[in-house]
Design goal:
The protein is mainly alpha-helical and 269 residues long. Helix content is 75%, strand content 0%. The chain has a domain of 183 residues: Orthogonal Bundle (MetI-like fold), CATH 1.10.3720. α9 packs antiparallel against α10 and α11 runs antiparallel to α14. The radius of gyration is 23 Å and the shape is globular.
Length: 269
């Protein structure tokens, strides 16, 4: 009993530490400037106000939010399509240099993304893609090493007899992939979708570098610009943070089973 009490006390403390920053975001977003100055950060403002949310949503922020939704959707669809095809080729198709090419590609995960930002920007500048949707999406829409590695490992774990039976029946590689293997890959596809959505929604450094106009500005960059002036409005910043946080909370609530499965799957694979 003592061990169990200590275990639950530790878990409760850990959960509180993890949740506390998000609680501060909510409390600060629902305070006025005077309430923020007069109360401790963890004390709710009474009465709570939605003026910060109204002010933020009454400006250009909904446009940036829509840009983020579009970017996240396109990156997720592109990653699912191209990652699946590349992973199937590396896992099932036989061609010269397959293993060398795959491990060279996976080895790029060892390179920090910040190192490649400047070369990527120079390439996009030479192609006249700076401050365009093509430049924003191009480096990541065709797949990532981690996604291809994950899907390849899952493909390799499927029974080869399924493909052999399909080939005997006259099915080609594309039909085998779409009609036989993909329905069996739902756990891996769900994992890849969740990872891509979260990483795309929270993407900041590359959109900050490649975009400058309102047509392509995303939510994370817009929130950062709120901190660039004199006299930062923390209430407004936290209101934007709350708006950015709500979709992620909704994803966790409705897809927590798949998120837990994704953790198990990535750990095993």
């Amino acid at each position: 009993m003592t061990k169990r009490i200590l275990l639950y006390a530790t878990l409760t403390l850990g959960a509180f530490v993890a949740v506390f920053p998000y609680l501060l975001v909510v409390l600060t977003a629902l305070k006025t400037q005077s309430q923020l100055n007069a109360t401790e950060p963890w004390v709710p403002g009474l009465p709570p106000t939605t003026a910060n949310l109204t002010k933020l949503l009454g400006g250009e922020f909904p446009r940036y939010l829509l840009n983020t939704v579009v970017m996240t959707t396109l990156l997720t669809l592109g990653q699912l399509v191209f990652t699946t095809f590349a992973a199937y080729a590396f896992a099932r198709l036989r061609f010269r240099g397959r293993e060398v090419l795959f491990w060279l590609y996976v080895a790029t995960m060892m390179v920090p993304s910040a190192v490649t930002m400047i070369p990527l920007f120079l390439i996009m500048r030479e192609l006249h893609l700076v401050n365009t949707w093509y430049g924003l999406l191009a480096p990541y829409v065709l797949g990532t090493p981690y996604g291809i590695f994950l899907m390849r490992q899952f493909f390799r774990g499927l029974p080869a007899g399924l493909e052999e039976a399909a080939r005997i029946d006259g099915a080609g590689p594309l039909k085998i992939l779409t009609r036989i293997l993909l329905p069996l890959c739902r756990p891996a596809i769900g994992t890849l979708t969740i990872i891509t959505v979260i990483s795309s929604w929270n993407s900041f450094l590359w959109p900050l570098i490649i975009t400058s106009g309102d047509d392509t500005k995303v939510m994370t960059v817009a929130l950062a610009t709120l901190n660039s002036g004199i006299g930062v409005d923390y209430n407004l910043m936290m209101a934007g943070g709350l708006i950015a946080l709500v979709p992620m909370i909704a994803i966790f609530i409705f897809f927590q089973k798949y998120i837990v499965r994704s953790v198990v799957l990535t750990g095993l694979k």
